[in-house]
Amino acid sequence: MVQVPRRGDLRLQPRQPWHANVRAQTEAGKRFERVRLVDEPLTEGQQFLLATGLGNVAAGEDIRNLPRAEAEQLRPPDFDFWLFDSKILARFAFDENDTTLGVYVTEDPAEVLAACQARDAAWHHATPTTEFARRVRSTV
SS3 string of 33-52? Predict the structure, then answer.
């Protein structure tokens, strides 16, 4: 199982600048949310992201996990993306080695709407990180 941190664990005491920012922003009423598509079984990198993501969750970010096989039934876009305030879409381009080649940013309403719909569908089916971590076997 992925080791779920307990109170007092340093991973639950967000001291990194990112964690401090997330905590301040969420305390001000803003939301940080993401859905991670994961393989079954998790890759080593996904195990690492799951374990370290618990600190982000403790800081106030809502990270959810969705098995890739389930996500494919939802017909998601074939690119990674971030949405900012459901108004700005950042699409990532990668090469065959998963090296980031660049980011395409747009406010085109049709593209943003499609990404919002994909996000909402994935969100509905995804499992919160803390719950997901309790159920997943890990060697990390």
Answer: EEEEEECCCCCHHHHHHHHH
d(CA 52, CA 45): 11
CB atoms within 10 A of CB 135: 10
Burial of 5-23, coded b for 16+ CB within 10 Å and e otherwise, reads: beeeeebeebeeeebeebb
Decide if 22 contacts 14 (C-beta within 8 A): yes
Token pair, residue 56, equals: 């982000």
Beta carbons of 51 and 44 less than 8 angstroms apart: no
pLDDT in tens, 63-77: 999 999 999 999 999
User: What tokens does 66 get?
Assistant: 């969705």
Rounded distance between C-alpha atoms, residue 47 and residue 65, angstroms = 12
Q: Per the confidence metrics, is the pTM higher than 0.90?
A: no
> Strands 62-67 and 33-38, how do they pair?
parallel
Length of the chain: 140
